[in-house]
Amino acid sequence: CTGMSQDYPFNVIGLEELNVSFKVYPNPTNGLVHIVLPNEQNAKSSKLFLKDMTGRSIELEFDQSSSLIDIDLSSYSNGVYLLELYADDEMISRKQIVKTH
Asked: What is the pLDDT of residues 37-59, one digit of tens each?
């Protein structure tokens, strides 16, 4: 039995670019991480979530009026985490953080 394959062109639709960016440093980190939010996010209802690679998610509490946030990851296991920024319940940006010992 032989198999044949035919190429089919397709277009991906419905994926929006995440235009808002924020800074995370140092990355990789062994503990304290500094997050710098864009100024336009200070006026919006923002939420920040930290997710591990198993999908567990933690909402991070922070001062909505500040553009600088510090989070302590020293008690977290080493690995890769995703930091997601939401505004008005819509994800607008995502960063990867590497936690080392």
From this structure: 877 655 467 889 999 999 899 99
Q: Supply the pTM of this predicted model.
A: 0.73
Count other Cβ atoms within 10 Å, centred on residue 67: 14
What token pair was written down for 34?
């500094």
- Find out whether 52 and 84 touch, Cβ atoms under 8 Å: no
Please give the order of strands across the beta sheet that includes 32-36. 23-25, 32-36, 68-72
Q: How far apart are CA 16 and CA 101, in angstroms?
A: 35
* Domain count within the chain: 1
Q: Specify if 91 maps to a domain.
A: yes
Q: Strands 79-87 and 90-99: what pairing?
A: antiparallel
Residue 83 CA to residue 47 CA, distance in Å, equals 10
